[in-house]
Design goal:
This protein is of the alpha/beta class and about 230 residues long. The protein contains 9 helices and 8 strands. The protein is about 45% helix and about 20% strand.
């Protein structure tokens, strides 16, 4: 696992430069180190190097890692959440980036209420309109926000998107901008949505330039995934 410390430091430097280009302090951008498929040893090394927030795609895979690294970091769910995994997810994650339906919101509300906690969430928006991807359409965001705002155990803090995968980061810029404009339009109508979770290894610098407050970076920190 040699190189994780150096790669993490390089990602942080790139975040600082991109934040500077966008006229924002580096403190305005939070790094989520995406540890999906990575072994506990690699994640432990990243934590030792200063990673404080870890992102996982699958609830059950994350459970074993969270148990092994108890208290080492804050954990975010960045992958799709099935309704039958909500009870477990509510007990594991500080934040859920993938709230994508009113039905899921009701399940989170129910289990969060049972657990006596409020769950911080982001609404996932399918900005590319891709059938194979999860997320609500732009027209569905407002009804979901209105429903979630009536649920005392859910706190929606922003929007998340996974744009179409394109080799040129500049080609992805319009999708990031679209999410920011959507957030700003909703904010003008009274919805408090301070966070934008957007940008991954191949495009996080462009995402920061377009207003990302959370970037989800895996490969640039941990190296290529096996399998």
């Amino acid at each position: 696992m040699d190189g994780i410390r150096e790669r993490l430091a390089d990602v942080r430097r790139r975040i600082q430069v991109a934040a500077g280009r966008s006229g924002r302090p580096v403190s305005a951008v939070t790094l989520v180190a995406v540890s999906k498929t990575m072994p506990v040893e690699a994640i432990r090394e990243a934590v030792a190097a200063g990673a404080t927030i870890l992102g996982e795609n699958r609830v059950q895979e994350a459970r074993d890692k969270i148990e092994a690294l108890a208290g080492a970091a804050e954990w975010h769910l960045i992958g799709h959440l099935q309704t039958n995994k909500v009870k477990l997810a509510v007990g594991l994650f500080e934040r859920i980036h993938s709230l994508d339906s009113i039905r899921l919101a009701h399940e989170i509300e129910r289990h969060a209420g049972d657990a006596g906690r409020q769950v911080r969430c982001l609404v996932q928006v399918n900005v590319g309109g891709e059938e194979q991807k999860n997320g609500v359409s732009e027209d569905e965001v407002r009804p979901l926000l209105e429903a979630a705002n009536g649920m005392p155990h859910i706190l929606v803090e922003g929007l998340m998107a996974i744009p179409p995968f394109l080799s040129d980061p500049e080609a992805i810029r319009p999708y990031f901008r679209r999410l920011r404009v959507l957030r700003d339009d909703l904010a003008s109508d009274g919805f408090s949505l301070p966070d934008l979770s957007m940008g991954m290894t191949q495009d996080f610098e462009v995402a920061i330039e377009e207003g990302a407050t959370l970037v989800r970076v895996g490969t640039a920190i941990f190296g290529p995934r096996e399998g």
